[in-house]
Amino acid sequence: MSADSTTTTPAAAGADAPGVHPGGRHLGLALFVIAAAQLMVVLDATITNIALPAIQTDLGVTDADLAWIVNSYALAFGGLMLLGGKAGDLFGRRRMFQVGIGVFTLASLLGGFAPDEGLLIGARILQGVGAALAAPSALALITTTFPAGRSRNTAMGVYAAMGGVGATVGMLLGGVLTDALDWRWVFFINIPIGLAVLAGTKSLVEAERHPGRLDVPGAVTGTGGLITLVYGITRGGEHGWTDGLALVSFAVAAVLLSAFLAIQSRAKDPMMPLRLLKDRNRSGSYATMLFVGAGMFATFYFLTLYMQLILGYSAVRTGFAYLPFSVGMGAAAAISSKLVSHLPPRLIAGPGLLVAAGGMLWFSTLGTDSSYAAHLMPAMFVTALGLGMSFVPMTLGAVSGVAHQDTGMASALLNTAQQVGGALGLAALSTISTSAADDRLPDAAANLYRAMGAKDFPLLAKAGEALTHGYTMAFVAAAVMFLAGLVVTFVAVNAGKQQHTEGAAPVHMG
Q1: What is the pLDDT of residues 204-213, one digit of tens each?
Q2: Measured between alpha carbons, how far is 449 from 455 in angstroms, rounded to an integer?
Q3: What is the pLDDT of residue 404?
Q4: Residue of 273, 320, 363, 462 with fewest CB within 10 Å of its CB?
Q5: How many Å separate Cα 239 from the centre of its chain?
Q6: Contact 398, 410 (CB under 8 A)
Q7: What is the reported pLDDT for 16?
Q8: Angle 457-492/407-440 helices, nearest 10 degrees?
Q9: pLDDT at 11
Q10: What angle do CA 134, 135, 138 make, to 5 degrees?
Q11: What residues contact residue 20 under an 8 Å CB cut-off, 6+ apart?
């Protein structure tokens, strides 16, 4: 049979599959370890956002460099994800999970003690490296630790929920820690979590090691291509899409990624087996998560700006304002993890994305004096409910029917799609928002800060209206992103329920 042939049966995908946990011993602890690790990795993408003003004041960070405290993490995380997934497949997923969490925890300690912006950005890059090693292995370890069926679906539901809950918990913790203690605690909080995760890793079942060597040319071109692509997206969002350095980055990324695909098609032991993309359900899941990441991460960014700059919320109040998002995401993930046993994935994720797009259109009606209880809170809950319904079936779709030696890479591709989508969405929607705001009032953001300092209330009102208009246009664009994901889901993802309840870890027969 061919190298990508698989045969899946309920028995084969369950306790008899290589590496799958026999019985229910320690499954509760294993679920806690994986969920805590995913929570820590995801929340760190947002926990620093609310602390940025305090960091800027304390360390004297320039406006130009401030964004890199956030972007440096995304750059390393998204760029190294494929390499982290392959390392897990070759050297052991539990081992690479432990290394990744250890690096992440150490980097958090260094970030908390950073005396200047250079070392802080360096620590953020190191955090991204740790996250890129741990995240792909965390998802892959679910397939080796939890038996197929209800147990694995529940674990997948919890894992998927952490993707959305982690982002909102990051906002909440960022506000509370910054206001109550000090901005450095947004890094120190990771240390006890990381140590607890490391202590519980013995509950995870290691998969069989697979022979092979690291594809160095593929690693260099693939990792380099992703890093330059994410950098170009970030640079273009900040300085405009005609910026010279952004255009050069896109050109270099195109060359490197083209070379990467050519190398992978010929390599004996490729870093990313192209057979993973031949399955339309899997490719559709990746494409859908690209659009979901684009809309979701941008939503957090613009809602935070709206609440702090327009409604005047404090950091801690902004964090607590996101609680409905966590509740909606958790509830939807719990429901969808049960529905995957009864419905095809497109009939769960598709309606979910339609609901999420409706939530975005609800946000697009915000004004400068909108009520939290009547407007923001219900729109957050609706959006989270829709996104939560899409996460579980798409996460299962990314790893269903994958041979054991490829599960780490399949997981890495899912995380890469979400991270690159987030960078692309934030950059594109920032351009849309800024352009729309400046059409109403040139340099709207600068005018808002100037009006605050001078207590120029007419200018303050005009700038607030212009910025709110920009944010609402970004929410409309986010709705389009979710609808694009909906189209991809119905066109490409045609799997039936059996593929997702029976086959998340098939026996490889090739």
Answers
A1: 766 655 566 7
A2: 10
A3: 67
A4: 320
A5: 24
A6: yes
A7: 35
A8: 140
A9: 33
A10: 85
A11: 14, 143, 144, 145, 146, 147, 148, 205, 505
Q: What per-residue confidence (pLDDT) applies to 8? A: 35
Q: Please give the Cα distance from 224 to 260 (Å, whole number).
A: 10
List of the chain residues with pLDDT < 50: 1-25, 498-510
* 3 three-state secondary structure: coil
Identify the burial level of 424 via C-beta atoms within 10 angstroms of its C-beta, where 0-12 means exposed, 13-18 middle and 19 or more buried: buried
Write down the residue that tokens 């694995």 correspond to: 152
Instruction: Record the tokens describing residue 106, joined without a space.
Output: 């150490």
First to last CA, the chain: 5
Hey, what amino acid is at 455? K
Say what the pLDDT of residue 48 is. 78
Pairing status of strand 6-7 against strand 507-508: antiparallel
Distance separating alpha carbons of residues 237 and 71, to the nearest angstrom? 11
Contact 3, 275 (CB under 8 A): yes
Q: How many other CB atoms are there within 10 angstroms of residue 144's CB atom?
A: 22
Largest CA distance in the chain: 74
DSSP structure string for 475-508: HHHHHHHHHHHHHHHHHH----HHHHHH-SSPEE
Q: How far is 39 from 303, CA to CA, in rounded Å? A: 21
Cβ contacts of 271 within 8 Å, gap of 6 or more: 82, 83, 86, 214, 215, 218, 219, 222, 264, 409
Residues 6+ apart with CB under 8 A from 162: 35, 38, 39, 42
C-alpha torsion 15→21→24→27, nearest 10: -140
Residue 185: count of CB within 10 angstroms of its CB:
18
Provide the Cα torsion 273, 276, 279, 283; round to 10°: -120
Please identify which residue in the block is written with the tokens 């992440």: 104
- For 348-372, write each residue's pLDDT tens digit: 888 999 999 999 999 999 999 899 9
pLDDT score, position 167: 66
For residue 364, which of 263, 449, 295 has the smallest C-alpha distance? Answer: 295
Please tell me the number of Cα atoms within 13 Å of 373 on its side-chain side.
Answer: 0
Residue closest to 150 by CA, chosen among 509, 504, 508, 510: 504
Q: Where in 6-82 does DSSP place strands (E)?
A: 6-7
**Angle at which helices 323-339 and 377-399 pack, to 10 degrees?**
40
Q: Residue 426: CB partners within 8 Å, gap ≥ 6?
A: 237, 294, 297, 298, 301
The structure tokens listed for 14 are 């369950």
